[in-house]
């Protein structure tokens, strides 16, 4: 029914072409697995073939789960998109903004939950910003998510909240908001409301030693040759042992994360019947939020995302630019290459996993090629598949 030969050939080529030693792609359509292909080896020695049991640090793909959790609380009336962040994190009531001349002045705009979700808060990606570094040094692993995220507010913002887009710690702060608003530790809320109900058994901020043993070997790519160099299995995005990064802290598997994608693709209802979100909430989740200024900022930061805008924590396709993929699909990727795509209009989702840091090829070539090949395969368009395969 579907024509996946070109997709398989592409996945089998990424090691030689782009220095990606291991990869795994799982595609669900209408709640059913329609394609799975794994290629390469999960260990540096090349003796352990990729398997379904492999785990990955998914880095910024974590943001899809974090923003799903936030949308649950919005749907339930626990938080509102226009709520001031200071309602949950008091330090955000007295923010400052750095000026072009280096001076620091009080912020005029109030930072809101919507600003956090749309990367418009004015934060940067320095996990030691403000007094966070000193706090982590003082308290060690005892420093928690809320404490650290409150400490981020001690540093000046890059701009007035809501005026620009800048990829940053906004979703880490969102995790702290979820923790306060829900009355649960952030990771506990995620487990009780997303991971356990969906059957995601290996998705966590705190992997056990047994889980670490199953993590695929991570490599870093040479920026010129793309040649991979092994860098081990531990790559936590955390300031302390108790810190749970909503922007990049999860370990997961392809099998696990596809369950999140499948629920969102089915307009909020999971394969097991659990209502993760309502259909109207999923629709709001993927609705573009950026004005022209912030859209331009996004394109400067992510030039390999033509046609996309930013919704409530995810990229969303607003202009197909000739791609065979569907308008309105959404998702995000991570620093080591994991990528989740969700398309509610076609009840389609896929998760692609790899473990390569600093790979120019992953964002600029591999992810867009995978996206297009998946859509072409499902359409059975052999002529265009052949053209894509030659690209």
SSE blueprint:
Layout: H1 5-18, E1 22-29, E2 32-40, E3 56-57, H2 62-75, E4 96-98, E5 104-106, H3 113-117, H4 132-139, H5 145-152, H6 170-182, H7 186-198, H8 209-214, E6 218-221, E7 228-232, E8 251-252, H9 254-265, H10 279-285, H11 292-301, E9 308-310, E10 315-317, E11 330-333, E12 339-343, E13 348-353, E14 356-357, H12 360-379, H13 382-390
Parallel strand pairs: 6-14
Antiparallel strand pairs: 1-2, 1-13, 3-8, 4-5, 6-7, 9-10, 10-11, 11-12, 12-13
Can you walk me through this structure?
This protein is of the alpha+beta class. It has a domain at 5-57 and 219-231 and 255-390: DD-peptidase/beta-lactamase superfamily (Beta-lactamase). It contains 13 helices and 14 strands. The strands form 4 sheets. It has a 7-stranded antiparallel β-sheet, sandwiched between helices. A 3-stranded mixed β-sheet has the order 7-6-14, with no helix packed on it. A two-stranded antiparallel ribbon has the order 3-8. The longest helix is centred in the C-terminal third of the chain and has 20 residues, at 360-379. The model has no long low-confidence stretch (mean pLDDT 94).
Determine Rg (CA atoms, Å): 20 Å
Percent of residues in beta strands:
15-25%
Q: Terminal Cα separation, in Å?
A: 24 Å
Helix/strand order: HEEEHEEHHHHHHEEEHHHEEEEEEHH
Structural class: alpha+beta
Residue share in helices? Answer: 25-40%
Low-confidence stretches: none
Total number of helices: 13
Overall mean confidence score, pLDDT: 94
**The CATH topology of the domain at 5-57 and 219-231 and 255-390 is what?**
Beta-lactamase
Tell me how many strands there are: 14
What about the largest sheet? 7 strands, antiparallel
The CATH architecture classification of the domain at 5-57 and 219-231 and 255-390 is: 3-Layer(aba) Sandwich
How are the strands of the biggest sheet laid out side by side? 2-1-13-12-11-10-9
CATH homologous group name of the domain at 5-57 and 219-231 and 255-390: DD-peptidase/beta-lactamase superfamily
| Highest-level CATH class of the domain at 5-57 and 219-231 and 255-390 | Alpha Beta
Query: What does the overall shape look like?
Result: globular
């Amino acid at each position: 029914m579907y024509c996946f030969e070109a997709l398989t050939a592409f996945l089998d080529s990424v090691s030689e072409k782009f220095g990606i030693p291991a990869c795994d792609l799982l595609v669900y359509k209408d709640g059913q697995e329609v394609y799975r292909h794994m290629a390469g080896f999960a260990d540096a020695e090349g003796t352990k073939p990729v398997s379904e049991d492999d785990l990955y640090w998914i880095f910024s793909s974590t943001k899809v789960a974090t923003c799903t959790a936030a949308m649950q609380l919005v749907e339930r009336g626990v938080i509102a998109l226009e709520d001031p962040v200071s309602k949950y994190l008091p330090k955000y009531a007295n923010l400052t903004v750095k000026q072009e001349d280096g001076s620091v002045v009080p912020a005029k705009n109030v930072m809101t939950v919507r600003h956090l979700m749309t990367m418009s808060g004015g934060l940067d990606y320095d996990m030691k910003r403000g007094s966070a570094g000193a706090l982590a040094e003082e308290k060690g692993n005892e420093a928690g998510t809320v404490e650290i995220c409150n400490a981020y507010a001690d540093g000046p913002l890059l701009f007035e909240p809501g005026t620009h887009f800048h990829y940053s710690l906004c979703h880490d702060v969102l995790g702290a908001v979820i923790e306060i608003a829900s009355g649960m530790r952030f990771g506990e809320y995620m487990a009780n409301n997303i991971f356990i109900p969906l059957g995601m058994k290996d998705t966590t901020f705190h992997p056990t030693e047994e889980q670490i043993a199953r993590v695929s070997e991570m490599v870093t790519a040479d920026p010129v040759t793309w040649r991979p160099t092994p860098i081990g299995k531990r790559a936590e995005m955390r300031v302390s042992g108790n810190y749970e990064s909503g922007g990049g802290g999860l370990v997961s598997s392809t099998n696990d994360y596809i369950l999140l994608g499948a629920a969102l693709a089915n307009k909020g209802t999971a394969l097991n019947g659990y209502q993760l979100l309502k259909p109207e909430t999923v629709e709001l989740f993927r609705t573009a939020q950026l004005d022209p200024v912030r859209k331009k900022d996004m394109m400067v930061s992510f030039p390999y995302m033509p046609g996309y805008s930013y919704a409530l924590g995810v990229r969303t396709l607003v202009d197909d630019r000739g791609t065979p993929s569907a308008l309105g699909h959404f998702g995000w990727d991570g620093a080591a290459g994991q990528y989740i795509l969700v398309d509610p209009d076609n009840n389609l989702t896929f998760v692609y996993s790899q473990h390569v840091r600093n790979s120019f090829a992953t964002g600029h070539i591999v992810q867009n090629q995978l996206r297009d090949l998946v859509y072409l395969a499902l359409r059975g368009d052999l002529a265009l598949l052949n053209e894509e395969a030659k690209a």
